[in-house]
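Aim 2 progress update. The chain analyzed this quarter is reproduced below.
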Amino acid sequence: MQATLKLVLPLAILIGFSQQMIPVVGAQGVTITIEKDKDKKSDSKTSDSKKKAPFSGTRPSVDVAILLDTSNSMDGLIGQAKSQLWNIVQEFAKAKKRGKTPLLRVAVFEYGNSGLPASEDYIRQVVKLTDDLDKVSEALFALRTNGGDEYCGAVIKEAIKRLDWSSEPNAYKAIFIAGNEPFTQGSVDYRSACKKAIGAGVVVNTIHCGDYQQGINGKWKDGADIAEGEYLNINQDEKVVHIKAPQDTIIIKLNNELNKTYLWYGSKSKRESYESNQALQDRNASGFGGLSIRAATKSSSLYRNVGRDLVDTYEEDEDAIAKIDVVELPEELQSLSPSERLKRVEAMSKRRAEIKAKLAELNKERQAYVAAEQAKLAEPSEEATFGDAFSGTVQKQLEASGFELEK
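Predicted C-alpha cells:
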C-alpha cells in the first residue's frame, strides 16, 4: 500500500466543471491530492445557492454518524479514528449559528466484522446518536478488528433507518463511512442507500482506505456523488503525529481541575460510571498524545453533560436541581438543604467557567505553536495534514448548512 493520502472533493455542486489536480505535501511527508474547479466564479455562485436559511431554533443541530470497517486489515483505520476523535470534534467547535454553538451528536457503527451475525449483514450499531462524547470515545477504544464481508450499502441503509436524525430543517446531518473493499458488496444496492440518505437530508462522505483509482473503480466516489458528499482517499496505516507543545503541562493540570467541577447525578452506579469513564477517556487520549486536544474540547460548549452533570444541567434549566430525587444527587449534596445545594452548584459553575477560560486561552497559544512547528516540517506554503483534509470537508458542509465558522 502506498504511504500517501489523497483527498478528493467531488461535491455534487462541482459536477460539470473542468478540474485540475494539485498535489500538496503534508507535514509528515503525506501527499494530499485536491481536485479544484478552474471556474471559481461559477463554483461560488452554485455553493451560495446551496446554503440553507439561517438557524431559527433554540440551538442548532449537528448529527454525525461514523461507519467504520472493522475487518482484519483495518487496525490502522481504527487507530486513526481513536487518535483523531477530539481533533474532529474541535472542527465543530468552530461553528456557530446566531452566536450559538451546535448541539453535536455522534453515532458509531461497525461493519465487515465476521464476529457479527451474518443475518444482520455483519453490522452493529455501537453507539446511537448521543451528545455524550465520552461514550463515543469509549466505544471507539473498544472496537476490535476481525475479517468479514463489508456491505457499505447495508450499513448506510441501517444508519438512516435506526438513528433518530434531527428534524430541524437546517441541521447538518452527515455520514462518514470508511473502508477498503468495493462499495458494491452485499445485497443492498449502495445507490439506493445513498439516495435514501440524501433524501433524508443526510450527506454521505466516503473514505476509501487504499489506492485512489481503486476507490473510484470500487464506486466509493460514485456513492459520495449520489449523496452530495465528498470522496476522501487515505492511507489508513499512516501514523498520526501529535506535536508536543510547552502549554501541554499546564493544560493537563487544568484538565484535572476541570474534572473536579463535575457533579454527576443519577443512580450510584451511573454516577460512578460517568466519573470513571471521564477519567478513562482522558487516559485513552493521553495514550495517543492527544490529551491537550481533548482538554480543549472539554473547555468548549460542545462537551456537555446535560442530564448527567448538575452544572451543565443547571445552566440549561435552573429549576432542574429541585426536580432530582435526593438519592440521585452526589453524596456530598444529599445532606445539604435546597439552598445550600444551589450555592454549591453555582460555585462549581463559576469555577468551571474560570478553568474553561484559561484552557481556551492556552489552547489558542498551543495551536499557534503547533502550526509554527508544522510549518518547519513542510516546504513553505505546501504544508498539509490529515486534520487539514478533514477540516476542508466539514467546513464546506457546515457553511452549506448555514453555519458561520470562526477563522
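Residues 1-56, 380-386 have pLDDT under 50 and may be disordered. DSSP finds 15 helices and eleven strands in the chain. These observations will guide the mutagenesis experiments scheduled for the next reporting period.
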